[in-house]
Each structure stands twice: as structure tokens, then as C-alpha cells.
Write a structure and sequence with these properties.
By secondary structure, the protein is an alpha/beta fold. It contains twelve helices and 13 strands. The two termini are about 15 Å apart.
Length: about 350
């Protein structure tokens, strides 16, 4: 049976370390306040003018390709997951291709926009391509540059203290070894709660969804067929161009769906939580990871967390954590590893693999 393996893994994080104390200089917060609510101590911020999701993704990708033992020209498909793309369009996948010097190969590049679950969705899609034999070497990248779009004032602290920048990458190949590779996957979503964790503007909705749902919102749209409404003065003056999150609502939903997805892929493979060698959860909030660990009765050595150092890097968080775990010897051949995520949409899912 043909299965998909992670042949190479790599990550990149910017040099600049932003501490909780640094943030307390620009907003009303403190190291104790942030640690208590999120577990985060530091995060990395990219250079505003010299680093982008695509450029950071390329550095992580080069490492993953090298560790897979192939030439970069052998990559025959790219999947790029991000919620903070270099441009509104085109997607960052083609920019990554250019960064890697692969434009002349003219391989396909697919962008995934499922936010925190981007790597899970991307890995599941890549698995289908490889199992079908359509592609041999799929490069999957998750990269984020949140620091360019956060509200660094007291008004935005509930969101802004959580996020960091970085990139992770995996080079995926086929194996005929029935004991290795991706054993099971699951993908889910519930759009009923889309606005609870979202960045509404700029966008093309024109207020449609808010009106349909009966939500109060005044975006200051001007009348007239050809009046520009993508960005308005009111959006700027009312700080409507920043991410929004109803933290308690997200937490409540996440602690239900996170463990459910993990159990689902374990059951598909005929395994139990006790069979896991390592769970690598999306690094959303240390409290969520600890809740999931307790619910599944997992030991500390069965769960890998690095949100303390990097914050929430959404689509990049799982590959960064997986790469670090591999470098530390926490992931070895034959280990049963579960990757799981929950995020905006709401979307959630998991992958189970034998390394």
C-alpha cells in the first residue's frame, strides 16, 4: 500500500525576540497577565521590510528539502498555508516558488486558507496527491507574518499578545512500507461561527454577512455603483482593520473539537491515546493544550509544546513544533505521531502518522 511520509522537515523563525515586557511598553499588559492567560513568554517578529511569509517559508523549505536528500528541482508540487499572505493576490505559493529559484520548472502551487488548520488541511491534500501517484515530491509550507497586521495598543491586546511570526516546511514522499506514513486524517468545519475569530476587513463582503446574521456593524460603506468600499475612512478611524476574537467562545469550542479530532484519527487506525508517542497540537494557547492532554490522559512526554517561545504562529505552528521535536530527538522512526489543530472558520482536523 502506498502511503505518504514526511521525508524532510525544517523551520525558520526570525531573529528578533519580542518579550512580554516589551509589549507592556506599548499597551496595558504585563508578563504575568500574558503568561496566566496564554502561557506565552516570548514570540518572534519578522523584519518589516526584509522578511515575508514567502521568504521565511523558503528558508524552512530549503532545510526540509536538504533533509529529504533531494535536489530542489525534484519538487513537483507546492502547497502553501497562511492567513497572512504577502499579497491579497497572487497567493504566496508562487512567490515561494520564485524564492526557491523554481519558476522555470513551472510546477503547480496551491494556496490553503484555513488559518490555524492550514498545515493539517495541506498535509491531507498532499497525501491524496501522493497516494494517487500524481506527484512524487510535494513541498508543504506553513508561514505567517502576523506582526504586520496586529493592533499594538491596549485596545487590541487580547489578540496581539498571542501571535508571532515564523515558518515551517515538510517534504512529502511516497513509501511502500505499510508500517510507515500517514495512517488516518480528518477534516471538519462549522461556518456558523465564522465571525467569532476573524479579520473582516478589508474584504469583499460589503456588510452582507453581518446584515444576514443580524449583527450590528457599520463599515461606512458609501452608496453608488462605482464607489470603492474595500477600505473606508471609517474602517481606519474605528480600527476595523484588525483581527477580532471572542476568546472565551473560541476556547469553549476548541476544547471540545481538539480532542474529538484526535480520537477520531486514532479510532480510524485502531489505536488508543496511550499508543501515541507524541502529540503535536497547533500552538493556539498553552491552556488548551494542557486541557486536551488531561482529557486524553497523556503524559508530559507525549505532548510537545513550544508556544512559550514562539506564541501562536497559526499555519506555521505545527511544522515549527514538529521540526523542533525532530531535532530534539523526540520523533524517531516508528513513532506514532498525531498532529491536530483548531482555528478560525471554525475549522479543525488531525493527521495520524507512523514516522
Amino acid at each position: 500500500m502506498r502511503r505518504t511520509i514526511i521525508a524532510g522537515i525544517g523551520h525558520y523563525v526570525p531573529e528578533h525576540v519580542e518579550t512580554n515586557d516589551d509589549l507592556s511598553q506599548v499597551m496595558e499588559t504585563s508578563d504575568a497577565w500574558i503568561r496566566e492567560r496564554t502561557g506565552i513568554q516570548t514570540r518572534r517578529f519578522a523584519d518589516k521590510h526584509k522578511e515575508t511569509p514567502a521568504s521565511m517559508g523558503a528558508k524552512a523549505a530549503e532545510l526540509a528539502i536538504e533533509r529529504a536528500g533531494i535536489a530542489k528541482e525534484e519538487v513537483d508540487f507546492i502547497i502553501f498555508a497562511t492567513l497572512s499572505p504577502d499579497y491579497y493576490f497572487p497567493g504566496s505559493g508562487v512567490l515561494l516558488q520564485r524564492e526557491l529559484g523554481l519558476s522555470e520548472t513551472e510546477i503547480g502551487a496551491l494556496d490553503i486558507r484555513t488559518q490555524c488548520t492550514g498545515f493539517i488541511y495541506g498535509l491531507t491534500v498532499a497525501d491524496q496527491f501522493i497516494r494517487s501517484g500524481m506527484y512524487k515530491n510535494v513541498l508543504l509550507v506553513g508561514a505567517e507574518k502576523h506582526s504586520m497586521g496586529l493592533d499594538f495598543t491596549t485596545r487590541g491586546r487580547n489578540v496581539s499578545v498571542i501571535f508571532g511570526d515564523g515558518a515551517g516546511a515538510a517534504l512529502l514522499q511516497a513509501t511502500e512500507d505499510g508500517q510507515r506514513g500517514i495512517l488516518a486524517s480528518c477534516l471538519h468545519s462549522n461556518g456558523r461561527y465564522a465571525e467569532i475569530l476573524s479579520m473582516i476587513n478589508p474584504g469583499s463582503h460589503g456588510g452582507y454577512h453581518h446584515e444576514k446574521l443580524g449583527l450590528e456593524a457599520d463599515f461606512g460603506y458609501e452608496s453608488g455603483r462605482y464607489m470603492p468600499i474595500f477600505v473606508t475612512e471609517k474602517m481606519l478611524s474605528d480600527a476595523q482593520l484588525f483581527p477580532y476574537m471572542d476568546g472565551p467562545a473560541v476556547f469553549k469550542f476548541a476544547v471540545q473539537k481538539f480532542p474529538a479530532a484526535i480520537v477520531e484519527v486514532l479510532e480510524k487506525a485502531g489505536l488508543e491515546p496511550s499508543d501515541l508517542d507524541l502529540l503535536v497540537p497547533h500552538q493556539a494557547n498553552l491552556r488548551i493544550s494542557q486541557f486536551v492532554q488531561k482529557k486524553l490522559r497523556l503524559r508530559d512526554d507525549q505532548v510537545y509544546n513550544n508556544i512559550q517561545r514562539y506564541g501562536n504562529t497559526t499555519a506555521a505552528s505545527i511544522p515549527i513544533a514538529l521540526s523542533e521535536a525532530w531535532e530534539e530527538g523526540r520523533v524517531k522512526e516508528g513513532d506514532v505521531v498525531c498532529l491536530a489543530a483548531f482555528g478560525s472558520g471554525f475549522t479543525w482536523g488531525a493527521n495520524l502518522l507512523r514516522w
